[in-house]
What does this fold into?
Amino acid sequence: MCIETVSLLLNGSEELAAKQRADFEDILRFVDNLSDPRLKSLSLLFLEKHADRFRRAAAARENHHARRGGLVEHVAQMMRTGAAICSVYPHLNHDLIIAGVLFHDCGKLWENGYPETGFNQPYNITGEMLGHIPMGLELVNRLWRDLQDRPEAAEWLQIEPPSDTVRLHLLHLIASHHGEYQFGSPVLPKTPEAIALHHVDNIDAKLEMLRRGYETSRELTPGLFERFRPWPVNIIAPLPSMRTPAPEAESEDNQ
It folds into this structure.
């Protein structure tokens, strides 16, 4: 099988590949528009070191965005939703929300990663033993330490709030984003941004599960679809909207 054919198969359908490319471009735009130089430098360093692995990773093994490139789709949609929430709750720290979205599942680059030329999501012993939250905390701390060796880090000493406070708040978003101890968070959300991030994550995951359910579940009777794992009940077809769809919002850099 030629390299071009393998690449086409790995990228999925033309529609999915185009969506994932557009989603990744949106992520880059959101990162480029960050105002806090610490969070922007950290995000750019992450993308510089791990963009290829990021673009291959799934957001989950089976529940939502469980496909090659699914993590990029999940992160991009969460960034759009997070930015929209910040527009109606202006007291939220926009930069922290966007950076928190980028890093909240960064441990999944290893827990739910795909090989460069593989079609199956392999199991990873580190991911199994630690999980993506501890791995994400470790990755962010490692990247943060790397940034301290850069010349611009000296300028950050004059910025308020202090850099280590910013780092701690970002780590809290990663640690608390599952929202409950029983779902794997070692700590519960304790800041406005942590609460917002948890719900943005949950909304996108659940709406993606429903989208998949409508496509794949057996229709029991018109408008009623059979439950699917892990959804606890049968699902009902949504009520069609009578409103004309609004044009897609412009990206941040065009506003």
User: Anything to note?
Assistant: Residues 192-216 form the longest helix (25 residues).
